[in-house]
Amino acid sequence: MQDAFFLVSKLVWAVLRPNTLALVLAVLGLALVWRGRRFGRWPLALGLGWYVAVFTLPVAALLTLPLENRFPRPATPPAQVTGIIVLGGAVEQRLTAARGIPALNGAAERMTEGVALALRHPEAKLVFSGGTAAIDQSGPTEAETARLLFTDLGLPANRVVLENASRNTHENAVFTHRLLNPRPGETWLLVTSASHMPRSMGVFRAAGWRVTAWPVNYTTGADPALWWDNPFPTRLNQAEWALREWVGLTVYWLTGRTGAWFPGP
């Protein structure tokens, strides 16, 4: 069942991701209009409308802000921490394998904050959860890249725990819980992108784990001036990522992977 869910989710998103779908609709509509089919104006308008809306309106920021603001960091950081859980999604494992050095993407703060917390809390384990999210599972895992990075940054191997089988957020929570078997009263920090935190907290709670949200990688703020700082391609990617999170929240709730549609503190 898990394999079917993973495969279907990948295939459906590959087809329906907003930026790709909008481009397909625009090209299809343009071809129909070119051939004299008046109804082609509708897919053309829908496809171009997405790009125009993201370009002229703060679509990306308005989609992202509720996600990023949902779980603030604790006002008073915990004095004692059992472990720090860093979710995958910030490393490029194939590029790492190709070049031989750890490669990070735009969510790199997940990794850097995890190391900073590990240095701040020498008693805590640093846990990385991530296999590979690709349909082809034969390639290197994210955990292998994480091991390289943490070693290069000087963390001793006995402080690092790697979970290398998970393919999505649900499996991050279930497999990591199974690996660590946390006990009541322990303090575990969950480090992931702020926009990804609501879904992550939902699945960790559903797995029976009361972790403390430690969001990073913010992409927007309350000041409207920040909404226009990024170039158009970046805002397109930001809007698509936010929509992916909203769709993920809905699907996870409908399939019982979270107990609430929009988990909150």
From TrEMBL:
Record flagged with keyword Methyltransferase: no
Annotated keywords: Membrane, Transmembrane, Transmembrane helix
Location of the DUF218 domain: 83-248
Domain of life: Bacteria
Claim: Hydrolase is one of the keywords in the record: no
Gene3D superfamilies on file: HUPs (3.40.50.620)
Membrane-spanning residues: 12-34, 46-67
InterPro entries tied to this protein: Cell_Envelope_Assoc, DUF218, Rossmann-like_a/b/a_fold
Protein name (database record): YdcF family protein
